[in-house]
Each structure stands twice: as C-alpha cells, then as structure tokens.
Prior knowledge:
The structure holds two protein chains of two kinds.
Chain A: H1 2-54, H2 60-75, E1 79-86, E2 91-98, E3 109-111, H3 116-124, E4 127-131, H4 139-147, E5 152-160, E6 163-172, H5 180-211, H6 221-235, E7 244-250, H7 253-260, H8 262-279, E8 285-290, E9 293-298, H9 304-316, E10 322-323, E11 328-329, E12 333-339, H10 346-362, E13 368-370, H11 373-389, E14 398-407, E15 413-424, E16 428-430, H12 432-442, H13 445-463, E17 471-475, H14 478-481, H15 486-497, E18 504-509, H16 510-515, H17 519-528, E19 532-538, H18 546-550, E20 555-558, H19 560-564, H20 569-584, E21 588-591, H21 597-605, E22 610-611, H22 622-631, H23 652-659
Parallel strand pairs in A: 12-13, 15-17, 17-18, 18-19, 19-20, 20-21, 21-22
Antiparallel strand pairs in A: 1-2, 1-6, 2-3, 4-5, 5-6, 7-9, 7-12, 8-9, 10-11, 14-15, 14-22, 15-16
Chain B: E1 2-3, E2 25-26, H1 27-41, H2 43-53, E3 64-65, H3 67-81, H4 85-103, H5 114-119, H6 121-132, E4 142-145, E5 151-155, H7 162-175, E6 179-186, E7 195-202
Helix pairs in contact in B: 1-2, 1-4, 2-3, 4-7
Amino acid sequence: MTTEIERLRRRLAREREARREAERISEHATRALYAEVADRTRELEAVVAMGRAVAGVLDSHALGDLIASHLASAVGFDDCGIYSWDRAADLVRTIGYYPAERRVLLRDIYPLEEYPETAQVLASRNVSIIDSADATADASEVRFLAELGGSLMFQIPMVVNGQATGTVELLSRTGQVLDDRQIAIAQTMANEAGILFENARLYAQIRHQAFYDHLTGLPNRALFGDRVGHALAVRIGEDDRRSALLFVDIDDFKIINDRYGHEVGDQVLAGVAARLQKLLRPGDTVARLSGDEFGVLVENMTDQRKVRSIAERVIRAFDRPIDTRDRTVRVSVSVGVAMTSPALDADGLIRNADFAMYRAKQSGKGRYRMYEAAERDAADVDARLRADLRGAAGRNELRIHYQPIVDLGTGAITSVEALVRWQHPERGLLYPATFIPIAEETGGIIEVGAWVLATASAQLREWQEWMPGLAVAVNVSGSQLQDAGLVEHVRRAVLESGIHPSSLILEVTESVLVAEPAAEAMLRQLKGTGVRLAIDDFGTGYSSLSYLRRFPIDIMKIDMEFTNEIETPEGEALFGGIVQLGRSLGLTIVAEGIERSAQRDLVARSTCDHGQGYLFARPQAPERIAKWISASRLPDPEGVGVPARGSGRRGTADLQQVAAIR
Amino acid sequence: MSLPIGTTDPSLGRARLPDVDRVPMKGIVFNLLEDAVARQYGENTWDDLLEAAGLDGAYTSLGSYPDRQLTDLVEAASAATGMAPQSIIRWFGREAMPALAAAYPGFFLPHADIGSFLDTLNDIIHPEVRKLYPGADVPTFGFATAGDGTITMRYGSPRRLCAFAEGLIEGAAIQFGQVVAIDQPRCMLRGDELCTIEIRVDH
C-alpha cells in the first residue's frame, strides 16, 4: 500500500513537472512568436518605407542610391551596392551604393568575364556568398571585396518576371551573416527594386523616344527647341554672351531619295548626323529638326568670325562623299546662321536661321549665309505682296503711267512708254521695282503683262483719235518671253484694241536678250505679228554685239548711263559711237534719261533723233497725257522749247510723219 | 557557393548549426513510448522502467530531452525482459503507429497502400513534423523502387535508429491492412556506412 501511494505520488510529481515544462515551452513559443511578428513587421516596414521613398523617383541612379540605403538598413548591413545587368555588353553597371561616399571606390562597369561568380548569380538567379576567408572563393570577387574593406558579401539577384536584371550586393565588414529570413527579405526588396529600375528604364526610353530622333539618335525638334530656349534664358541680360544657331539643310535630298531609294536616303541622313556631331564641341547640340533639316546650337559663341568658321567647317565636312551600305553618295548642305538676341525666343531664332539657310540656298547650294534682319523684313514684305499681287489686276489695282518719247527735232511726242503701277490698298502706289521681281518669281507676271498689253493698246487707240501716228511701248520681261502664250496676248491686244500692230512697240532689255537663248525664236514670232521691237537699256548687257544683227530689232534705246556721261568729251564720243552703230544697222535711236537741256542738245548733235526723260516729262497718269495729246504738244519743261536742230514745232500732220519712226 | 533561395543550408545562419550529438530528442517520442508500454504492460511497468533507468520521466511532447534517455529506457527494458534492444525499438515503432494514425489521420487517408504513404515521407510528413515540433531532427531517406515492387530506403542518421524505422514501417503497413517483409542487407550497426532497408509487400 505504501509502495502504491509512493508510486502515485511520484507519478503526480512527474505529471506536474511535465505540465510546467509544457507551460514554459508554451510561454517561450509565444514570446518567440511575438519576436517573430515584430521582426516580420520591421521587415515589411522596410519594404514599405523603400516603396514610399522611391515614389516619383525615375532617375535610375537616384533610385539606386535610395534602394541601396533601404536594403542595407533593412538587414542591418554596412554596405549595399546595386548593379544592373547589360546582357548585350556582358557586363554589370553600378547604379547605386550605400553609403554614397564610398561610391567613388567603385567602377562604373564590371565585365562579367572577370567576375564569374556574379555571372553565375545572374544566370542561376541564386544567392551567392563570397567569403574572403574561403580559399576557394573567386579571386576577382575577393579583390573587389577587399577594395571596399569587406570580408563577406551576399550577392542577391534582382529578378523581374523570372529574368535576372541585376544584383544587389550586401557587404559585411565584420563577417556578419544573413540568416534565411534576411536573405528572403533582401530578395523581396531586390526583386521590388528590379521592377523599379525596369520602370525607370521604360520611362527613360519613352522620354528618349519623345525627345530623340529614332533614325539618327539626335535630339528632335522638341528637345532642340528646349535647349535653345534654355540657352536664351541663361543669356538674358548678358549681351556679350551670345550663342549661334546653325540651320543645316541637305541640298537636293529629294533627288537622293528618288534616285537611290529611302533606305539609302535614311543612311545619308544618319551619315550627315554623324558628321555634324563629330564637328562640335561637347556642350554643343546637334538635332534633327525634320526631314533633311538639322539644327546646331553653338553656345557662348559671340565672335562672328568664329561662327563663320564653324559654318564653313560644316560645309566642308561634306567635301568627302558619304558611304552608305551600297553606294557612295555625294552630298552638300546649305547653312543659315542666326545669333541669339535678347528679344528673340527659340522659335524666332530657329526661324531666322531657317530664313538665312533659305537665302543661302537661293544664292547657290553648298553655301552658308548669316541672318540679316533687313533681308528678313524684305522677305516678309515680299511674302505679303506675293499674296496680295494675286488678282490685283482683277481688283482694278493696277495702273499704267505713260512717259512720252519725243522727237528731238520738233519736240513732238512720237510715242509713250507704258509703265505699270500698283495702287496697293494699304501701301499706296507701288513702282515696278517693288513688285515686278515678285511677279516674276510667282509667275504673276504673265497675268500682269497681259493686262498691261491689253490696257495700253486700248488706251493708245483712244489717243490715236487725236494723234493717229502715236505709238505705245510696252516692257516685256524675261519670263514673259519664255511664256508661249505671249504671242497670243500680243495678237489679242492688237486685235481687240483695233490699233495697227506697228504702233505697238515691245521693249526687251539687253540683259534678257543675252540671258535667254530661246529669246531669238520668240522675238521672231512676235515680229511676225507686225509689232515693233525695241532693245531697252542698251549698253548694259556686256555682251557681244553680234546679236544686234541676229535679232529682228527696230529700235535701240541707249541706257541713261551714257546720256549721263555725255557732257564729258569721252562720254560724248562714246555716245556718238553707239548712235553710229545703231544707225549703221538701220535702227531708230532713243536716248533715255535726258534730264537737262545741255544733255538734250548734245544728244541731238550726235544725230540721235529721239529722247525720253524728266526734261520732257515724268511718267504721267493717262488723264494728263490725254491733255497734252489733245493739245498735240508737251508743255515746254524749261519754258524754252527751242529744239537744237530742225525748224521749230510742227503741226499734227508733221507729228504723224515723225511718229512713224523709221 | 550558390544556394537556391529559401533552402536551409545548415552551414548558414546563426545558431542553426545542428551538432548532431547535442540535438536532443523531442518529448513526443517518450510520450509515444509511455503509451505503448502502458497499453501493453500497464502503467506500473512504465514506472518500473523509469526507476530502473534512473529517470524522473517528466516528458512533455514539445520538450526536448537527451537521446541518451531513450537508450537508457531501452536498455532497462532489455535487462528486464531479456529481449534485444533492437527488437524493443522495432516493437516500439510498430506500437507507436496506431496512436500517430489516430492523431494525424490526414497523413494516412490519401493513401491506399504503404508504398504511396512512404513516398510522402520526405516531402510532406517530415516537413509537417518539423512545423509541429520546432527543432525536431527528422531523418531524410533515399528511396528506390525495384521492378518487382520492392522498396529500398536508405537511412543514414547518426542516431542509428534503423530499427525504429522498420517498426514504424511495419506499423504503417498494418494501418493499410498490409503485411510487409523487411530486410536490412546493410546496417550501420553492423559497421556499414548506411542502412539499407528493403520492404517487400506480401500480397
């Protein structure tokens, strides 16, 4: 019985002891659980803190340093480096380090062939440990560790979508190790970092696509405009610190494209981009603005001579042809240069350089030109006029003023020269010098020319009521001579007005006759309609005189330059020689630009029989001419009216005879 | 050195080094032994065994106790009964199984025979045991199945409890209504490097 009680007592003690042991274990487990939860929470907070810290950070290096610092603190390590894997180049790039001041100890890139262990981590996506005490550890990795003063390093791959994108390296100086859970948390953060870097990379790529030209890799117009704007902003108020903008355009790029195809064209564009880039200083910007247009911004370049030499270098850079894959292509560029100025914005500066380039192209290809405001103003005005000129005849804005040509013997009017004027609704009366070149350029000259022929002919018909022998001279330009419709316009003017064709004189300048090889054929056709032909501004064409014989010319108008010189002995001799030449060819001679009576007397003495100039009359509105014609005489300009030769004024009947100039 | 993420490499980490000689045995093993002894021989016999082995015997399942205490108890039983220690351990394995099957039916229910049950030992059962009994040092077996259906398990634990494994396998077979013949061509107790346990299911 005693033994039985004793046995039960022992059994009870055993059970009590077992219960206490179980309670101790339970308490311990509970504490461990709390500690575990606290650890996990801390780790989770580290991940969340990292997420919060990097929000909005899109630069991969700023991101790299931030993530490195969060990773190091999450696992309580001294150092953390972050490296991105460039698969194509077989290397890793340093993108972040904590502490940042030790970043200088690192290289920017590490070729993977020198770091087999890192390569292995990337290939296997497994964590690796480099222990400098381990004799079998890879020597280059151990050296790397030593350079940073570490003894142990955990390499953790960043894995995004199953692909390694780089590594996180946690480095310990004290031999401190990571346990499984710390490795797991570091891995989670590394993968998270991988996604952040991937996003930063995509952002950079999208940014690049938005601001860079895909074909040439150069900044595009948007980024160039931005850089120019920035250069202008910095320079505001510093007039001595200017920058230059070169607008570069490939000459005849369309022909290159058409002839060799777009693929070659694209290669040429890339080749041009490469050459332009090679020419420049590091701070300068080359951009592709559009199609075959490039922009070059040269900052802090005030010396115009240096700017010119840069422009010349750009032109000369294309002395050598461009090699494309299949062929060698000869290329030239035209360059326009504009300088910054405080009043100018980026668009304005680019426009100015573009305009200068356009002028360079006009003056011939493979040249450069500096922007000049006056040219631009003129061009702006031209552009307005060009638009206004269209339909000016239809809107009744064109006028003709007439300048009499007189018989130097009698002082009587023999013919009038029709001179076109444009009554511009805003700018008032415009002279031919202002708008005829524009009309020539746009082709509007054909419309204007036809209108002048018709109007002058109709006017002449009216005046011939009083002065039947009167003729009218109408100027014909080079482009009109090239227009096959001219003969028809002349014929119709004659027919519709009812004048005799011989009373219509077409004046062609000597320079046009010389420059237009086709002029001869056209002149013969015109001659065939019965009109008379005059050579205008004779003596200014610097040409062989043989054409005088070839062309069917009736009248020679000696340029005012010779009239001007006639009061010197040499001038008089020269003038006389020209008159003799004309006479020997059987031409009627008219002296232009007679302004003084002394000139008139000398001209008359040289046996030139007709004159034109302010001495007799300026070009006049038709109403005033009508008055004179109805009176059959000009008012005497000097109140003298004594002819140098002949027998005084004649009546209307005489004028008729004279008018048939021959 | 590369490790797959999340594996427990015993050479890593702080205070994780499993110095085999010092890793104690879980209290659950002693509880199972007590149950088996008390069920077949009465509670007094367990008291006698503890007394004979000189142990106080306050075992709680989650507690950890030196391996040596199991050896002491087996030796005491051997002395009292004249049975060989390995036979006692084998008997213990077989007798422990009904209690385990009652406590953890989830490990048994998915299986129709001992073969597929054993297949889940390394990957399911032992990992679960580690969760239930933190710090439990369960062995890892090598498995091979021959053409005639003979299952070969390799066992290499320094505890050298191959007899316990044999008993557990016999007991498990009983749970599936099967009878197995077990043979050990190689055994660490006979000086081999590993134990090889061959299991043939008698049909």
